[in-house]
Amino acid sequence: MKNLLKLLPVALIALTFASCGEKQDWTCTCTNLTSLSVTETPILDATEKDARKECDEGDTKLLGILVDDCEIS
């Protein structure tokens, strides 16, 4: 969990400087909150909005509790 909190500011800074309308390559980083395992999946040639939508589809809940949290960077 501490690693996730360390990555959050870096991700926010990166998103601040990213251009919203341009297509570019993104990385979808998913963290399993029970095992703290991290997987990264490339999303190629997409706008930020489309990449965020595709990445958020990886969020998983079990009995209403968030198990996998995915964010773009």
Give a concise summary.
This protein has helices spanning 2-17, 48-56, and strands at residues 24-32, 38-46, 60-62, 65-72. With 73 residues, the protein is of the alpha+beta class.
The total of beta strands comes to 4
Total of helices: 2
Q: Which structural class fits the helix and strand makeup? A: alpha+beta
Q: Give the oligomeric state of the chains in this entry, treating copies of one chain as homo and distinct chains as hetero.
A: single chain
Physical arrangement of strands within the biggest beta sheet:
2-1-4-3
* Uncertain segments: none
Please describe what this structure looks like:
This protein has 73 residues and is α+β, with helices and mostly antiparallel strands. It contains 2 helices and 4 strands. It has a 4-stranded antiparallel β-sheet. A hairpin with a 5-residue loop joins strand 1 (24-32) and strand 2 (38-46). The mean pLDDT is 83.
List the helices and strands and how they pair.
Layout: H1 2-17, E1 24-32, E2 38-46, H2 48-56, E3 60-62, E4 65-72
Antiparallel strand pairs: 1-2, 1-4, 3-4
Name some characteristics of this structure:
73 residues, alpha+beta, four-stranded antiparallel β-sheet, 34% helix, globular
